[in-house]
Design a protein that fits this description.
globular, 2 helices, binds coenzyme A, 164 residues, alpha+beta, two-stranded parallel sheet, 34% strand, Thiol Ester Dehydrase, Chain A
């Protein structure tokens, strides 16, 4: 039986904050955490938000540029705050804010932010509609507007890639 697409969902219904202790396996011999480790955790948490919003299987369609504004060290607590910013027909932009906490001092540093796009798939692996979002707070409304602007830039980028 075909599953109905829910009309719209609140951003808070799928938002996730996770914490993870940075282990020696995440870092180099200097004690800095690899960018690739952070990207894996970012993709993981963003995918969970997409699954929760879509209530369907989703794949990563793109990951926008990622800047590492400050180092994360082995022994830090990595804090990832992820939420749906913008929803198209079958795709969703998830924003992830990355913070690192130094446990002895408790100090928290914003080390980067990243935007990822996921596409929901049906049983045959084809893009399938997802619920719209209801941005409630001023911050959610701003993120929605900015998500739409980024989507337009991605569309232009993809069109250019397809022409190559
Ligand atoms: C993502 C994927 C399913 C899109 O398939 P497609 O045939 O291009 O689908 P469509 O052209 O119908 O586009 C579907 C949606 O995806 C979006 N999209 C497609 N490629 C995109 C990209 N590179 N970046 C962002 N959004 C993208 C489209 O804008 C569209 O959004 P909308 O429905 O909200 O308007 C396909 O490219 C794919 O399977 N990629 C590989 C995914 C993967 O293996 N990821 C890594 C492991 S999870």
């Amino acid at each position: 039986m075909r599953k109905e697409v829910k009309k719209a969902k609140k951003v808070s219904e799928s938002a996730i904050t996770t914490v993870r202790l940075m282990m020696p396996t995440d870092g180099n011999i200097m004690g800095n955490v690899f960018g690739g480790s952070i990207m894996k955790y970012v993709d993981e948490v963003a995918a969970m938000v997409a699954f929760r919003h879509a209530e369907k299987n989703c794949v990563t369609a793109s990951i926008d540029r990622m800047n590492f504004l400050a180092p994360v060290y082995v022994g830090n607590i990595l804090i990832l705050k992820a939420a749906v910013n913008y929803v198209g027909r079958t795709s969703m932009e998830i924003g992830v804010r990355i913070e690192a906490q130094d446990p002895p001092s408790g100090k928290i540093v914003h080390t980067g932010s990243c935007y990822l796009t996921y596409v929901a798939l049906d049983e045959k692996g084809r893009p399938t509609p997802v619920p719209k979002i209801i941005p409630e707070t001023e911050e959610e409304k701003r993120r929605y507007r900015e998500g739409l602007a980024r989507r337009k830039m991605r569309e232009a980028e993809i069109a250019a890639l397809k022409r190559e």
